[in-house]
Specification:
Blueprint (H helix, E strand, L loop, with lengths): L4 H28 L9 H11 L6 E5 L6 E3 L4 E5 H5 L3 H19 L2 H30 L2 H38 L8 H38 L1
Parallel strand pairs: 1-3
Antiparallel strand pairs: 2-3
Amino acid sequence: MFFHPMDILIFAALGLSIWAQFKVKGIFNKWSQVAVSSHKTGAEVARQILDQNGLYQVRVEPVRGTLSDHYDPMKRVVRLSEPVYYGHSIASVSVASHEVGHAIQHKEAYGALVLRHKMFPVVNLTSGIAPFLFIGGLLLSNLNLIGLGIILFSFAVAFQVITLPVEFNASSRAKKIMVSEGIITNNEEHGVNKVLGAAALTYVAGALMALFELLKFVMIFFQGNDE
């Protein structure tokens, strides 16, 4: 069976994505066993950082699941998975601080985050339609459908790419705040870097896979035009 070079890149990105998911879970579990010297829980750290940045109205709530942590900009809530909310490990305070980093970005109207929020409703719609246009275009040998699918899917790819600086910036903020506020010691920065670095890798893998998929359909489109 012959594989197109672009297929190989997509499979490689998929493999990276799966590996990254296992890696982030493994690293989170490892550093969940290491207590932070400040003995603060993820919930306490989140509340402390929020209050110090004047975000008194942003709530901190526990949510079921593992690594289901997120910041909800609509309801102004930092939701932390139970292991993070109640845990007092390096992994717990790292994830909690990262999510609070998004709340601070929201307060400061961080450019990439603002753009990401504005794109979300559009991407939510176009990402659901694009696959059907691709499939319909291929089955009917209709390049117009494929071309429209490419345009719509481009929004999803752009969303993935814009997510990268948002996540990297939130992690950078988290590390600086944790050190400056004495939440972690300098010796604990290594563990924090491991936890946040592994999480960032999942976003990089997702962006690469989306980009390679887009390039594949662009190549199909131009090959069809040549024929």
